């Protein structure tokens, strides 16, 4: 969540796509017919990126674009076809509510430009779930495949979570049009399952006290804290003998943490699960719990995992904090194949802006290569066809049950909803305190597979 939804603490606002945004999308849909292309060669195809590489999120999202650029630079299509990348990006706008409509309009413009360009056969991106919600109505109607390496809101792909997380399912998935949205990362339901796995199988907890904050996505799309608390609770209590000792508690408006600390001390659960972000009060709660004498672990999701701010706020109480993140830690990229990627990435990016290798560089690299694999299969099925054929065939191939791509992060395949039915990676971090200082460190690297219920196992590296 921390990098896949920008954080807004809004405990009272309804979690809906704003009417102004709906109007923008409806206007955009009216102009999203594919154009006839340009004078570029009929054997030249393109992948478009959709990232916020300027503005508030540029430092996070630009490394993902570099991952796509590298994948395309290494691509070799069959039958003399060529491939290039076009950057159809947008500027991320920080905080004020009025800016969300501006950002939605910018995304719609970028997506429509790709839709009208007949050479574009697929998109990699966007980074945030809210950006995907603004793009999907256009791409699904146009039959243009879009693969995100980072979106986690389950309502993008699962109808029964759409309204629950503030999304309009009928807008995202227009009736009569096949789904052409896919993602390679785990969704928040799966993160709740992995958190429950870590709590019970790795930390040995059988009882948990669950708290959450009021964090949400951009424009109120989703309720990250409340949703993750429910997903964790459902998964944790599904194991015999495991229970949540108190119904998930909202700490957003607490002046003091006495309503949490007193029952925690009285019930002495094996751990506290915090569903939220560092800024939502979790780090202050950890510090207060330790000061009150509770020294068992606190576990959270990617809203706190590996976040330096958690250390500075929790201070001396930061030890034995755990967090999960559905991305690979770069320190685990030690296999020969992963090291080849790291070397190629550093050589390709050089000293460009925000050139430091990030987990999202690899996630986007794998997503782009999955798309390139589908494009290659489309060419093999019908070389010499019109450009529109490759856009349509690429989507059909990605959605087909037999599609599979062997990425560095594991096998990538898509279920009928567009979720990754292959393998998903989770980094588990732990705060280690030594000599009066604390730091996050990679604790375990998990690889998980499954759909309704994940099965996870520890792996040494990628």
Keywords:
Rossmann fold; 8-stranded mixed β-sheet; 38% helix; alpha/beta; disordered N terminus; 5-stranded parallel β-sheet; 462 residues; 21% strand; 19 strands
Overview of this protein structure:
The chain has helices at residues 19-29, 58-74, 97-116, 129-142, 159-162, 169-172, 188-202, 224-237, 258-267, 282-292, 308-314, 336-349, 359-381, 387-399, and strands at residues 8-9, 44-49, 52-55, 82-87, 90-92, 120-124, 145-148, 181-183, 207-212, 215-216, 243-250, 271-275, 298-300, 321-325, 405-407, 410-412, 423-434, 437-449, 455-459. By secondary structure, the chain is of the alpha/beta class. It has 2 domains: 31-185 and 334-421, Rossmann fold; 188-326 and 424-459, 3-Layer(aba) Sandwich (Rossmann fold). The strands form 5 sheets. The protein has an 8-stranded mixed β-sheet with strand order 11-9-12-13-14-17-18-19, with helices on both faces. A hairpin with a 2-residue loop joins strand 15 (405-407) and strand 16. Helix 1 (19-29) packs parallel to helix 3 and helix 3 (97-116) packs parallel to helix 4. The longest helix is centred in the last third of the chain and has 23 residues, at 359-381. It is globular. The two termini are 22 Å apart. Mean pLDDT is 91; it is low at 2-21 and 31-38.
């Amino acid at each position: 969540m921390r990098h896949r939804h920008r954080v807004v603490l809004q405990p009272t606002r309804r979690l809906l796509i704003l009417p102004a945004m709906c109007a923008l999308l409806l206007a955009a849909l009216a102009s999203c017919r594919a154009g006839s292309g340009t004078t570029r060669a009929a054997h030249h195809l393109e992948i478009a990126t959709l990232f916020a590489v300027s503005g508030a999120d540029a430092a996070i999202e630009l490394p993902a674009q570099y991952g796509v650029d590298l994948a395309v630079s290494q691509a070799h299509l069959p039958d003399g076809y060529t491939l290039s990348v076009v950057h159809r990006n947008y500027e991320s706008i920080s905080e004020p509510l009025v800016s969300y409509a501006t950002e939605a309009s910018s995304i719609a413009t970028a997506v429509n430009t790709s839709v009208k360009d007949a050479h574009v056969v697929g998109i990699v991106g966007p980074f945030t779930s809210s950006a995907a919600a603004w793009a999907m109505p256009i791409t699904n109607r146009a039959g243009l495949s879009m693969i995100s390496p980072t979106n986690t809101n389950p309502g993008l792909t699962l109808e029964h979570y759409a309204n629950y997380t503030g999304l309009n399912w009928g807008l995202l998935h227009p009736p009569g049009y096949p789904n052409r949205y896919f993602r390679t990362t785990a969704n928040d339901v799966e993160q709740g399952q992995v958190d429950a796995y870590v709590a019970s199988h790795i930390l040995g907890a059988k009882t948990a006290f669950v708290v959450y904050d009021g964090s949400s996505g951009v424009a109120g799309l989703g309720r990250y804290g409340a949703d993750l608390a429910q997903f964790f609770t459902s998964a944790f209590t599904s194991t015999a003998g495991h229970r949540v000792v108190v119904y998930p508690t909202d700490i957003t408006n607490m002046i003091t943490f006495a309503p949490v600390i007193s029952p925690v001390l009285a019930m002495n659960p094996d751990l506290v699960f915090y569903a939220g972000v560092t800024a939502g009060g979790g780090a202050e709660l950890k510090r207060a719990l330790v000061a009150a004498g509770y020294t068992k672990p606190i576990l959270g999701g990617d809203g706190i995992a590996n976040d330096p701010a958690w250390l500075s706020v929790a201070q001396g109480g930061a030890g034995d904090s755990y967090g999960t993140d559905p991305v690979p830690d770069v320190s685990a990229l030690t296999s020969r194949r992963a090291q080849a990627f790291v070397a190629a990435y550093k050589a390709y990016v050089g000293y460009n802006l925000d050139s430091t290798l990030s987990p999202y560089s690899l996630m986007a690299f794998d997503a782009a290569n999955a798309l390139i694999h589908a494009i290659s299969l489309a060419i093999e099925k019908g070389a010499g066809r019109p450009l529109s054929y490759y856009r349509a065939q690429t989507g059909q191939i990605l959605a087909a049950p037999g599609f599979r791509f062997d990425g560095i992060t594991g096998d990538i395949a898509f279920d009928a909803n567009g979720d990754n039915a292959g393998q998903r990676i989770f980094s588990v971090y732990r705060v280690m305190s030594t000599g009066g200082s604390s730091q996050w460190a990679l604790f375990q690297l998990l690889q998980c597979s499954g759909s309704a219920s994940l099965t996870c196992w520890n792996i040494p590296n990628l």
